[in-house]
Amino acid sequence: MNERGIFSKLNNWIIYILLTSAVAAVVFASVILIDYLRKEEIKRIELFATTIKYQQNEIIEDPMTLDLILQINLSNNTIPIIITDKNRKPLGIDFQRNIPEPILNDPQKMQGLINKMASSYRPIELQMPDGNNQYVYYTNSDLLNNLRYSPYILGALILAYIFFSFWFLRTIKKTDEGYVWAGLAKETAHQIGTPLSSMIGWIEILRMENENSAGVKEIENDINRLKTISERFSKIGSVPELNDLNINETIQQNYDYLKSRISKKVSFMLVLPKEQILIPHSRILLSWVIENIVKNAVDAMKGQGRLEIELYEKNKNIVIDFKDSGSGMTRSQAAKAFKAGYSTKKRGWGLGLSLAKRVIKEYHRGDIKIAQTEIGSGTTFRISMRNS
Predict the structure, then answer these.
(1) CA angle 88, 93, 95 (to 5 degrees)
(2) Distance separating alpha carbons of residues 304 and 191, to the nearest angstrom
(3) Sequence spans of domains, the chain
(4) Residue 156 confidence (pLDDT)
(5) CA nearest neighbour of 5 among 237, 236, 351, 239
(6) Whole-prediction pTM value?
(7) Residue 385, strand partner residues
(8) Is pLDDT of 249 > 80?
(9) What is the CATH number of domain 242-386?
(10) How many Cα atoms within 13 Å fall on the side-chain side of residue 190?
């Protein structure tokens, strides 16, 4: 148990640290990448503008220099560029780069694009000897435009990660609490086992003195019940073994035991079908659920009233109804009845029905719910399990 707890917690924290590192790395890398690409594009634009200015101001005869300028001009195949005069009038097709054809052929769209470029970046001024300065307008490439959505994506990722962290830490806390309760339960089972062994020995001595004593038989029944309780505690945290057992017999055994131990003012009845029903279940765990519901019903009736357990088949399901004539519940109370820690009793821990739901839903693949309740008219708890 301890090794399992340590390794589970260790694995959880390793996953959490890895995911945190991954998120931080993605955010950091994305910010650096966007900033780097933006700066590189601006550098390329400035280089392009410089070559244009140099080309127009100087008479270049060196073939290598001409080839270099040509290579620089041709290297820009992503950044949209338009060179205009001081009135923002395009100078011609040779002074434009990477402009979509529909815009090239539409002067109005071309002017709109120039205005948009001017609002994004300050144009680069090319000073000419004749005073007719030219202006290089540019904007982001398609790649950089697509990357502009990355802050929103990163924001969504960080938000999702915050929610994940909240859920993860809550899960860790619940897991730790589960290990604590499971460990406590197993230790309790161990502590109960020692005096229980002594009681079994004393029962054997009493039986030798008076074998047919009714008192001895009742004490023996109680000791057997304590053994069952001890087994329940010892199995907490372990996956129970489900066997094909006669559920009629399981319910009958619990009914017989509980009938002599609840108030005589409670009319306690059991309705079973004539045919036997075999269904995979853990007799120990299902007995605990039955006992828990019955005791809750008796408490709700304040020790007097009517309580009926009925077993029947419906739509290929095995159904067990517990009908009491107790005080009933409000809609709010019924909604919270199976929540851990909720109890209407002053001394209640609020764990009984929560654990009962876990036993039925997680281990027996069934369902447990409040089928009917009304203030002053009682409550019906219903367990349903698939009859496979």
Answers:
(1) 60
(2) 35
(3) 2-147, 242-386
(4) 74
(5) 237
(6) 0.49
(7) 318
(8) yes
(9) 3.30.565.10
(10) 6
